[in-house]
Structure formats: C-alpha cells, structure tokens
Amino acid sequence: MATKKLGKQTVKFDHPPVIIATATTVGPKEGEGPLSSYFDTILSDDLYGEKSWELAESKMLRETVKTAVQKANKNITDMEYMLSGDLLNQLMSASFAARDLGIPFFGLYGACSTMTESLSLGAMLIDGGYATHLVAVTSSHFSSAERQFRFPLELGNQRPLTAQWTVTGAGAAILASYGQGPRITHVTTGKVIDLGIKDANNMGAAMAPAASDTITMHFQDTGFTPESYDLIVTGDLGAIGKEITEEMVYDQGYNITKVYEDCGLMIFDNKAQDTHAGGSGCGCSASVFCGYIYKQMLEKKLNRVLLISTGALLSTTSAQQGQTIPGIAHAVTITNHI
C-alpha cells in the first residue's frame, strides 16, 4: 500500500529531507542580471577555459557539485547518489561530470524540469531510507543548447519575440536525512501534456499546460491553496508561458497571481538584456532556486515555496519530423516549518 501517497500524483514525506547546502555557477550574461549577488561563481568567459561549450557546461556542473559539497562541510565520498541531467544528447554534461566525480549516478532527462525531477527522486531516496546524503544538480548552456536545438550561433539568426534565452548556469542542492535548512515535504509528479504547439521558438506556450496541470493537481491532492505559499515559482515559462499558466490555473478555480513568479523572468532584466520572452534551460530554475530562493529561505524572508520546474520534451528528430512539443512539470514543496 502506498502509505505516503496523497491523492493522484502527490507524495507527503514522513521524514522530510533537508536541503543542507546549495551552490551555483552562472555565465557572464546571468552575472549581469538582477540576481547576480546570489550566485556563488560568475564566469567571465562562457568557455570556462575549455575547448568547447559542451565541455564548459560539464565543467560548470562538476565544479558546482564540488562547491555545494564543500559548503555542506562534507566530502565527495559522502555523496551516496548524484541525480543529474542536462539538455545535451546522452546527458553529456552530467555523464562526464559524474565520471570525474566518481559518485553513483542516476542520469535524468526531463528537459528543463530536471531540477525538480532530481529533487523529487532524491527526496524519495532520503525519506525511504536509501541514502543519508546525495546531490541533485543540473545545468544548461546557451551556446551548447543553441547549437543542438536551433541554429549555429555563427549564422546570427534573428530570434522571434516569443523566443527565450537559454541560461548558462548550474545549480546543485545537497539533500540529507538530518541537519539544518529548508525541508522538502511534498512532491507532485507531473504528467506529459501536449496541446499541439509545434513552434520551438515558443517554449513557454508549449510548457504552460503541463505547469497548470501540475499546480492544479498539487492543490487538489494536498488541500493547499495559493495562500498556503509565500512563493509559487515556475522554472522557465517566460512572459508568454507565465501568462497562459495564470489563466489556466484561474480557470480551475485558483488565483495564484499574488504569489506567482517565473525563474525565467527573474534571472534576467528582459528589456535591458534583450532576452525577449525571458530565460529558459535546465540551469534556469536550478540557479534561481539554488541561489536566490534558497538564500531567501535561509534568511526567513520566504518560508514556504512551491517550485515547479518545467520542461519541453522535444528533440531535434521530433522537431524535424514535424511533431508537436510535449510538456512536463514537477512540483516540490520546500518549507522552513514542518
């Protein structure tokens, strides 16, 4: 019997895991944004001393894990699992980082939902008694993502106003069965939702239905309301997807407007930095949560947060074959109070 299950899609933990430390690494553009003071490392060069953007992204992920472990006053050997993923084929960044770190590795692909996917599964491992310490981490890189999913940067293609700017960033969270810090109390696992969007330059619209569905199911399963939270924050819907999500959730009877933000609109100053609809990428929610939101929770400026990382499950193959773009979103409740 699933004794920890609430409703259809939510789990409530008996022994809520603690997030004892986080770390972030971001690129130069992110370091010029409004959240710059909350990041641990800001790169001056997005190649990070490597020969390719893909290797730079893997190094970024690897070094972020090391920083998080150090901030937790632990050793790499204390990490029993590493749950990680990225946007590249065969999870190149995460796999190469796991090779170098030597931590037992679960490779995850949820596109830009990977941060809450890794937090969800990591929390289940901790609460289930299968680990004492683990790291949940993900990354993205503007240049590697553009090369794989859109156009070579050398072409200088004009981006439509619906397009988003993939965040160059990585965020890592150390989860533990004991210690001080905010705790993960609930996980709502999302379903794949596809309402027929085909435009790879309008990811927000493709992901919004999944975000709306997960948020609504979270409220229905738990009995929580928007007023239960200081902040409800999606991963990377941007301006267009955020507006659609607000409307769709409202149609289901929940007004989240007063407490709702999107990481893609927080990490950049869209007008000053010309990011069009906002930020995107696995590293978007990872760096905003592990940087800004986590520190706000440590300072008790935020006490209960619903984090919903959002992903567009397309590939170059599916896009070239004219397929629609399925979306996915996973939610975690993170709180200072049990």
UniProtKB/TrEMBL annotation:
A Pfam family that the UniProt record links to this protein: SpoVAD
GO terms of molecular function: acyltransferase activity
Highest taxon of source: Bacteria
Name used for this protein in its record: Stage V sporulation protein AD
Species, as recorded: Thermotalea metallivorans
